[in-house]
Every structure is written in C-alpha cells, then in structure tokens.
Amino acid sequence: MSSAAASASTSAYRPLINSDQKGQLMLDQAIKGFTQLLTPQQKATIQNGPAPQREQIHELTTEIADKIFLKFQAKKYVRRVQEFLEILQRYCPIIDTFVSSEPKIAALVWGGVKLLMF
Questions:
Q1: d(Cα 84, Cα 93) in Å, to the nearest integer?
Q2: Alpha-carbon distance 46 to 38, whole Å?
Q3: Packing angle, helices 92-101 and 54-89, rounded to 10
Q4: CB neighbours of 85 closer than 8 A, spacing ≥ 6?
C-alpha cells in the first residue's frame, strides 16, 4: 500500500468536527455533569418547567460575567494596596519618630494606616 493510499485510508476514519459541533459537545458534557449533581426532585422540576427564553439566558450569563469581572477588579485593587502597605511598612520606625514629635493630627492618620498594615 502506498503512503498516499495509507494516509487517505486513515483520514477516512478520523471524524471531522467543526467548531459548532465541538461547542455542542462541550455543552452536552456540561449539562450532563450538572444534571448528575441534581436530586431527582430537582431533575423533575427542570424537565417539567418551562424552557428558559434566549433573553433570560443572556441576562443571567451577563450578570454572572459582571460579578466575576467585579471580583477580579476588586482583587486587583486589593493587591495594589497591599503592595503599597508592604512598602510603607519598611518605613514604620521612621514615620513613628516623626509622628511622636508632633502627634496632634498625624498620630490619628498614622494610627489608621498602621491598623491597615497589621
């Protein structure tokens, strides 16, 4: 058998999956995994209930994506503040000395900052 004939015969057995079919396959696997987690009562509720409309699905996925995005943004800012406080912590003894010389207002501000650091 020639190499061209061999490659043609092996390619005939490989299923060709386009991106739509791959997406459908992934969705089917996700649904199967989700339904395995449900109780029989929950499965019956889903099967007997009305099918969700496209707009409802879009709204829900948008809401979930927004929550994930906000969580990510909050973590990013927390990380930045944490880095700043870690750098500031190196200078604590120096700032303590300055604050102790004139503690009227500076002690209140510095006390709040130190509370965040520890």
A1: 16
A2: 10
A3: 70
A4: 113, 116, 117
Quickly tell me which residue has 């002690």 as its tokens: 107
Q: What's CA 97's distance to the chain center, in Å?
A: 43
8 Å CB contact between 117 and 85: yes
Give the pLDDT of the chain (118 residues) as one tens digit per residue.
444 554 455 555 556 667 777 878 888 888 888 888 888 888 888 888 777 777 887 788 888 888 888 888 787 888 888 888 788 888 888 888 778 877 778 887 878 877 776 6
CA 106 vs CA 57, 100, 101, 110, 117: distances in Å: 53, 9, 10, 6, 16
Please name which of 24, 26, 44 lies closest in space to residue 35, comparing C-alpha atoms.
44
Phi, psi (rounded to 5 degrees) for 35: -70, -25
DSSP label of 18: -
Token pair 């406080």: residue: 85
